[in-house]
Specification:
Elements lengths: L2 E5 L3 E2 L5 E8 L6 E8 L6 E7 L4 E3 L7 E6 L4 E6 L8 E9 L3 H7 L10 E2 L3 E5 L2
Parallel strand pairs: 2-11
Antiparallel strand pairs: 1-3, 3-8, 4-5, 4-9, 5-6, 7-8, 9-10, 9-11
């Protein structure tokens, strides 16, 4: 059974930082991708970062240079470091997992619209950026 549990969301001021975590209990597929998505109030969910089993990453332009994806493969935890946060970063952040999905497939579609490629989702953790 695939289970994803996010944590780390909080309320911060603009310019602040957070680190989100996604703890994964899942089958060990040879190929897979994991990603972080967010949904702002009143907006559609958008992809912001993804990684596959090989380690390369992809970021949405809106977060490139500010957010960093990393993972602890042994503990099966995916992290998203959020720096220089802006009010428009406010939203529900969810992690997702999909076996047999490679990063080049996500890249071809565009990370922003890649949620349709993922079948396993966590419940999300809320990030609020406000002064």
């Amino acid at each position: 059974q695939v289970r994803l549990v996010e944590s780390g969301g909080d309320s911060v001021q603009p310019g602040g930082s957070l680190r989100l975590s996604c703890a994964a209990s899942l089958y060990d597929y040879d190929t897979y991708s994991m990603g972080w998505f967010r949904q702002a109030p009143g907006k559609e969910r958008e992809g912001i970062a993804a990684i596959d089993e090989g380690g390369p990453t992809i970021y949405a332009n809106s977060v490139k240079g500010r957010f960093t994806l990393s993972r602890d493969s042994r503990k099966k935890i995916l992290y998203l470091q959020l720096n220089r946060l802006k009010p428009e970063d406010t939203g529900m952040y969810s992690c997702a997992y999909q076996p047999k999905l490679r990063l080049f497939t996500i890249s071809a579609l565009g990370i922003e619209k890649a949620d349709r490629l993922f079948g396993f989702w966590g419940q999300g953790t809320r990030v609020t950026v406000s002064s």
